[in-house]
Structures are given as C-alpha cells and as structure tokens.
Design goal:
about 300 residues, alpha/beta, 4-stranded mixed β-sheet, 9 helices, globular
Length: about 300
C-alpha cells in the first residue's frame, strides 16, 4: 500500500511541476521537426506521435514537419541507383525527385494514421499544397545539385485554416519554384521557415544528438541553454562539427525572427520532448533571445 502511495505521489509531483508550463503554453503554436534515426524505430516513432498528441491535448497547437532521408536513400538504392551527396546535400535529379516525393508522401500518411489512431484529427500536406513553400534552386558550393530548394516564401494560410479547425497539420518538405517545378527541401530548413511564418512560440528539432557540446568528444561540455549571441560566437569559433552549424544557424535565425524558444533534442530518447518542455531541468539545448526577460 505504501509503495503504491509513493508511486502515486511521484506522479502527482510530475503533474504539479508541469502545470505552470501547461498554463504558459496554452494556445501557443509549436513546430516539431521530426527526422533521423527516431523515424526508423517503430517504438520511438509511436512515442513521438504520442508526445505530440499530448501537447495538443494540453493546449498546444502543434505542426509536424517531417523528413525521410534514410527512407529515400533506401528506395533510390532499390532502383539500382547510388545515392549521392555534395556537402551533405542529396543530389536530386528528376528521377530521384520523383522517388523522394513518393516516399515523403508515404511517410506523411503513416504519421497521419498514427495520430488519427490516438483520436486526434490530422491532415497531411506537402509544401506544394496551398502554395505553402515556394523555393528557389539551392546550390552547394556553387554546384548545381538538381531539384533541391531553398525556401524563399511561405504562405501559411493552409496551416492556419487547419489549426483553426482543430486539425494537426503534418507537412512534407516539398515545394515548387516560379515554374512550378518540384523541389526537395531540407526538413530543418522547412521547419524553420514555417515556424517563422506562423509566429511559433516554440520550434523543436528532434535529432540524432543529445544537443550542443562545445567539444563533442568531451561530454562535460554539454550546453543546456544558449543565447543567440553565444550560439553565433560558438559557430564563429570553429570548435563545433560542420554538421551542427546549419542547425545552429536555423536556431538563431528562428529566434531572431520572433520564435520564442528553439530546442535541439535527442529524438532517440523516449519522451525527450515532454521532459524538455514540461520539466525544470529539461534534456536538450534551448536557444533564446539575448533580451529574453525570463532568462537574463
């Protein structure tokens, strides 16, 4: 009996700790970028969708922007082609673009199905729907890598309509240019652009790392909170890996554009998003404005 009471007490304490966060985030938009290894593990996949569903039920207005790079590579390989990358960006010819759009559409509807199974209304869209994501061709070090786009304009009307009608939007990172050619978009970039356009209170990147380290080989250098100026200083210092720089750039850009807080979290850790948002200690790295009155 005592053991059961202690367990119940612990659960009550968790709920009490979460209460002020739930009150603060009520009716706020949160954009969740979901990709990486967590998408390949069925159990982690279900946990992430449960977490996003819970965020909606406690008052958040979530938008999911998903990737699918590993699945795209798998299907490209099935055709006998070899996936090629330049500076970390997939070389996307017309055939690869067709495969990417097909795979991303399949992933999109899988996520919608999981959300619907939990009793939440969800709608899957691509960046082409409603002219959501307009792009220009992205070059990699001056090299043409095919149908890879940089977002240059966001028309978020379709997302606002879905949210206002109590749907959870799930966005596939595909868009088109002035000629209505289809382009693949880096999911981090798409999530960042959407978060800015809808005035999100939070932007969360679920990744394959725990967060940001000053020196990745030294786990004691983990950074749990970082202002925009500190992040820029870290990028300019040259001590972090090249793969983290685009993420930090997106984080600082989003905060400077008015997104309240941006988080880099380990998507491989079950419920990392809930722990980061609803507990005092959190789990990942949070970025905030230099003049954030709550933290400075």
């Amino acid at each position: 009996m005592t053991e059961n009471m202690n367990e119940a007490q612990k659960k009550a304490e968790v709920l009490i700790e979460a209460l002020p966060y739930i009150q603060r985030f009520n009716r706020k938009i949160i954009v969740v970028k979901y990709g990486g290894s967590a998408m390949s593990d069925p159990e982690l996949l279900k946990n992430v969708i449960k977490d996003v569903t819970l965020l909606k039920l406690v008052g958040f207005k979530p938008i999911i922007v998903h990737g699918g790079g590993k699945e795209i590579s798998r299907w490209v390989a099935k055709t006998g082609a070899e996936p090629r990358f330049v500076n970390g960006l997939r070389v996307t010819d017309a055939e690869t673009m067709e495969i990417a759009e097909m795979v991303l559409g399949r992933v999109n509807k899988q996520l919608v199905t999981l959300i619907e199974e939990l009793g939440i209304k969800a709608v899957g869209v691509s960046g082409k729907d409603g002219g959501l994501l307009h792009v220009r061709k992205k070059l990699s070090g001056g090299e043409d890598i095919g149908f890879v786009g940089d977002v240059d304009k966001v028309q978020p009307g379709i997302l606002r309509d879905l949210i206002d009608n109590d749907y959870l939007p799930v966005v596939s990172p595909v868009g088109f240019d002035d000629s209505f050619d289809t382009y693949n978009i880096n999911a981090d970039d798409a999530a960042c652009a959407i978060a800015k356009a809808v005035g999100a209170y939070k932007l969360v990147f679920l990744t394959d790392v725990e967060g940001v380290y000053r020196d990745f080989s030294d786990k004691s250098t983990f950074i749990s909170r970082m202002s925009v100026s500190q992040a820029k200083e870290l990028m300019e210092g040259g001590s972090i890996g090249g793969g983290m720089i685009p993420k930090l750039s997106n984080c600082t850009s989003a905060v400077e554009a008015g997104v309240g807080r941006v988080h880099i979290l380990d998507g491989r850790m079950p419920h990392s998003m809930l722990l980061e948002i609803f507990t005092d200690k959190g789990t990942g790295t949070m970025f905030y404005a230099d003049d954030d009155k709550e933290l400075v």
